[in-house]
């Protein structure tokens, strides 16, 4: 994200100085990511943003990927992602550890920087009795490729999530 901001500043400066055209400046600045729910925004000033997403796929289609943060005894639910869903959360800078539970627990630790956006992909893999949710770091390009077919998770009342809710998340 810092690189993106730097590219935007350079492009704007070059345009004002007459060094590049608007088309050349557009190459330096990435296009906004647009999903079924609208464009993905930037993080709030001074905060980081984590975008959790689960691309649509046949594997584990009926299972949800519930992402939590905090102590195992009293975790906070961050998102409950069905196939083709994403959720962006604003967080304070610093270390954050996210996890999924079910047949196995999968953890992902991130060191969040202010004004940065991070992408985390949730995949459903093969398990012994049911599918396993796995969290893995991703990037802007991977999310952007799937974004047009993705819809933002709207909370516990999301109809699709009620169908996809399964104990092995």
- The unreliable regions are 1-17, 161-169
Number of strands: 11
Per CATH, the architecture of the largest domain is: Sandwich
**How many discrete structural domains?**
2
Portion in helices: 10-25%
Q: What is the CATH first-level class name of the largest domain? A: Mainly Beta
Strand content: 35-45%
Number of helices: 4
Overall, the morphology is globular
Q: How would you state the average pLDDT, rounded?
A: 78
Q: Roughly how many Å apart are the termini?
A: 31 Å
Characterize the largest beta sheet: strand count, sense, and whether it forms a barrel: 5 strands, mixed
| Strand order in space, largest sheet | 10-9-3-6-11
Rg from C-alpha positions? 18 Å
CATH topology heading of the largest domain: Immunoglobulin-like
Question: Could you state the order of secondary-structure elements as H and E?
Answer: HHEEEEEEEEEEHEH
Please give the oligomerization state of what you see. single chain
Structural class: alpha+beta
Would you write up a description of this structure?
- The protein has 169 residues and is α+β, with helices and mostly antiparallel strands.
- The chain has 2 domains: 30 residues; 131 residues, Immunoglobulin-like (Sandwich).
- The protein has 4 helices and 11 strands; from the N terminus they run ααββββββββββαβα.
- It has a 5-stranded mixed beta sheet.
- Strand 9 and strand 10 form a beta hairpin.
- Helix 1 runs antiparallel to helix 2.
- The protein is globular.
